[in-house]
Structure formats: C-alpha cells, structure tokens
Design brief:
mainly beta; about 325 residues; 15 strands
Length: about 325
C-alpha cells in the first residue's frame, strides 16, 4: 500500500511523461551539438569535438527516464580565409522511459558563414534513422494495442534541421525535431495503435559578460515546445573562473531546480555534473536527478576564432 501511495505522483504526471518525447538536458550548452547540428564547428581551437553523457531522472523510481549519448564532429579549418568553413559529424543517443525506448543514429553536416566582421551564421542538418522499442512483458497481452504492436522497428528518414547565429558574446539556436518521423511505424509494422510523435521546436539563447577579475557570467535560456502546446522553459546561469572551472544554477519550469559544476582537466577535456531536485509533486517519491557529461571539446579557450588573444578566458562550453 505504501509503495502504491508513493507512486501516485507518477500517475498524476503521466501527461508530463507523454509530452517528454525528445531528450532534455540540464547542461544544454554543454551538449549543444546534440540539440542543434548547426552548433558543431563553432571553434578553431581544435578540429575535433567528442562528447559523451548520461542522465538519470527520478533515481528512486523503477523504469524512470534515462538517456545516454555520444557525439563526435570534425571541422575543416580554413587555411587562409575565414569567410566560410564546414563541419561533419555523427551523433548517437538512447532514450528510455518506462516500457518505451528509442535510439537515434544520425550524421551531420554544418556550414558556417561569416556575415559581418564579428557575426557568424551556421546552417546544419542531422539525417539518419530512429529505432523504437517497447517491452511488452509487463503489459496485458490481451490488450488489442499490445497484441498488434511490434516490439521494435526502424523509422527513417529522421531529419533535423538547425540554425545558429553567434559571435564571441552571444548565440541564438533553433532546431526542429520529429518532422519526418510522425509515427512509431514504417511500411511493415508499427508500435501501438496510431501512436503519434509530435514535432518539437528547440530554441536557445545565451550571452556572456566578462569581468576584470577573470570571472565571466553566462545566462542562457532554452525553450522547447510543439506547434500547438505551451512552451517549456529552462534557464541556466553559469559563473566561470578563468580557465579552470565553472559553477551554476538551473531552473526548469515549475518542475526542477538544480546546480551545475564543470571542471577542466588535462589540456582540452572537461567534466560536467548536474543535480536537479524535483519541486513538483514528484519530490514525494523521487526528488533526485543526476546528469554527467565528459568530452574533449574546444572550451576554456583564450583565443577567439580569428586568432586574436584575450586576457579573459572564454567560459566553459559556451564557445561561440
């Protein structure tokens, strides 16, 4: 009985779970490539960018949402002119919530164009396939939706376009997801009965403020929504010291508050850890969410992309 009572909040939040059809990260500026293909190749510090990560939501509940990802991309750094450059990459993620799971297998291409002295526009696209799974072992086999459902299938093409406008102190991102895979089905089979996947819009904006004492402050805002639903907002505020570490806070709508810690090690590697606490009714059953990211990324750079040195280090992750 006690276990049932503790799981009542999960039932009450079933609408929230059904809406969470796309992956969401606390450190959305760390995994900017995973959110937007146009964010790849924004730095000349190194031509390579490699990042892995995992998120475990509501740790105390079985089959709660969990996500893993891996991304890598390569920038073709121009030898002479910095008017334009290209980037290619690959991204894989796995998202699981309850009995449902899906994997994305994507490749990307990004084109960067210098449109003014200090302003760059980037256009990118992911293209690939998604594999959907459902574990029917814990479901009622006499249910028509379960009886007719496939246990797994591959849907394609999965195309995600993206755009980024940025300079040293500002960025604006927008990407569109689930436009070309509206259902968990293909020409041969489907999961559930007329199950739909809703297109989502992801938008992010951020700014950077430098201080004379080697600190930099970076507020950023992420919005994701469907075309017919109220947008959900997430805000981060990062304070970074020199080239060594950053600490920050995060607020996700009326659902989570959290903290972020990121630290540099070796030469060009970084670790980011985020903790979120549920401030809605989920805190009764499972208040804790953990996120971990690690990568070899062009961050903590003291040079801008045009080769000019700076006395103030750029902030972690937000390498414009």
């Amino acid at each position: 009985m006690r276990k049932f009572i503790l799981h009542i909040p999960l039932i009450l939040f079933c609408d929230f779970l059904s809406a969470q059809q796309t992956t969401q990260y606390t450190q959305f500026t760390f995994n900017r490539y995973g959110y937007n293909p146009a964010a790849a190749g924004t730095s000349f510090k190194s031509p390579f960018e490699i990042i892995i990560g995992t998120k475990r939501q509501w740790l105390d509940i079985d089959n709660a949402p969990k996500t893993n990802f891996f991304g890598a991309n390569y920038t073709f750094i121009p030898k002479r002119s910095y008017r334009k450059w290209h980037n290619i990459g690959a991204y894989i993620d796995q998202d699981q919530s309850g009995v449902f799971a899906n994997n994305s297998f994507l490749v990307s291409y990004t084109f960067h164009l210098l449109i003014s002295k200090r302003l760059v526009a980037a256009f990118g696209v992911f293209a690939g396939a998604r594999r959907f799974f459902i574990s029917t072992n814990s479901l009622n086999p006499s249910d028509p939706a379960v009886a007719k459902s496939a246990s797994n299938l591959v849907a394609y093409p999965d195309v995600i376009p993206g755009f980024r406008l940025y300079n040293k102190k500002f960025f604006f991102d927008i990407s569109l997801r689930q436009l070309t895979t509206p259902k968990q089905s293909n020409s041969e089979k489907q999961i559930g009965l007329n199950s739909k996947i809703i297109p989502h819009i992801y938008t992010s904006v951020g700014m950077r403020f430098f201080f004379d004492n080697n600190f930099s402050l970076v507020p950023s805002l992420n919005m994701h929504s469907t075309f017919n639903y109220i947008p959900a907002f997430q805000g981060n505020l990062m304070l970074n010291y020199g080239t060594r570490f950053g600490i920050g806070a995060s607020v996700t709508g009326k659902n989570f508050v959290g903290g972020i810690f990121q630290i540099r090690f070796l030469k060009n590697a970084v670790v980011g850890i985020a903790y979120e606490y549920s401030i809605n009714r989920m805190r009764v059953a499972a208040p804790n969410t953990i996120e971990f990211m690690m990568g070899i990324v062009p961050i903590f750079d003291t040079r801008d992309r045009f080769g000019k040195s700076s006395n103030v280090a750029k902030c972690p992750i937000l390498e414009f």
